[in-house]
Design goal:
This protein is of the alpha+beta class. It has 6 helices and 17 strands.
Length: 294
């Protein structure tokens, strides 16, 4: 046993310990177990447990190393950080003129509608828009109806060309046939609203003549301009004193604008379509349904 130092060390524990206590010296295990009493072989030389996972320690270490290597290869996300290099579109935008406000020359700046404030310049790689020179063409929506949508620039403002012809609205209720006069102005023909029967003043509404004032005792109850103030408010039983005030029996007569009783003894009288009808007359009905006294 002197030839096996490890065996010598473990022999001290042979009487009370199993070979598992001597695992650090497993190079002498085979020699030791070869000389153990067969009756105590299972006790002193039990099977050596396999490493966890069934793989060798070296294999595990190499696996860990492989895992570490895999992590280093997966360092791609840091390479993704290189996508910041893809921020190049901003540079490309400046070169191609696609990014508003960035430029190297005026041609890089986006064009704007044909207004008088769209002259492109590039200052410190930034787009600026300045007034066009006088005479440059422009377009837009003019404030006046009798102007074309195109014109020329003057002092940074679009001067729209006058329309030669075309209808318009001069916003005057007392004119008709409104047209552009060729100088940029809308002009209409004045209405002639003459005073008709019993009319003292006229006006206009939506291009039509209207009656505004009637002579005393008269009114325009039918709303027709051509026949003037046609109703006598002093004597009309249907419009007594005012349009629509109807005198009914027994106060069946309009006198001086007031409905009054026209009979002293009304026992033989009746109301016939708003008219007093007394015997021997009778209230009759026409085929049209209208009552009359006869």
């Amino acid at each position: 046993m002197s030839r096996h130092p490890g065996l010598m060390r473990c022999a001290l524990f042979a009487l009370c310990l199993t070979w598992s206590a001597c695992l650090p010296f497993d190079e002498d295990r085979d020699a030791f177990c070869a000389n153990v009493d067969p009756g105590r072989l299972e006790e002193l030389c039990p099977p050596v447990p396999a490493p966890a996972g069934g793989a060798s320690t070296d294999a595990g270490a190499s696996g860990d190393a492989g895992a570490d290597a895999g992590l280093e290869e997966d360092a791609g996300p840091e390479q993704d950080a290189g996508s910041e290099q893809d921020a190049g579109p901003e540079e490309d935008a400046g070169v191609d003129g696609g990014a508003v406000g960035e430029c190297f020359t005026a041609a890089d700046c986006p064009e704007r509608p044909a207004t008088c404030q769209n002259f492109r310049v590039c200052v410190d790689q930034r787009c600026e828009y300045r007034p066009q020179e006088d005479g440059a063409p422009c377009s837009g929506t003019p404030a006046a109806q009798c102007r074309e949508t195109t014109g020329t620039c003057k002092s940074g403002v679009c001067q729209y060309t006058p329309r030669v012809t075309g209808s318009c609205n001069d916003a005057d209720a007392c004119t008709i046939g409104d047209v552009c006069n060729g100088a940029g102005t809308c002009v209409g023909q004045p209405l002639t609203c003459a005073n008709t029967a019993n009319v003292t003043a006229t006006g206009c509404s939506v291009g039509s003549c209207t009656i505004t004032t009637c002579a005393a005792g008269w009114d325009d109850c039918d709303g027709v301009y051509s026949n003037g103030c046609e109703t006598n408010l002093y004597s009309s039983n249907s419009n007594c004193g005012t349009c629509g005030h109807h005198c009914s029996w027994p106060d069946s007569s309009c006198a001086g604008g007031t409905c009054v009783t026209s009979c002293s003894d009304c026992s033989g009288c009746s109301d016939c379509n708003g008219i007093e009808c007394c015997a021997p007359k009778e209230c009759r009905r026409r085929p049209t349904g209208v009552e009359y006294c006869n």
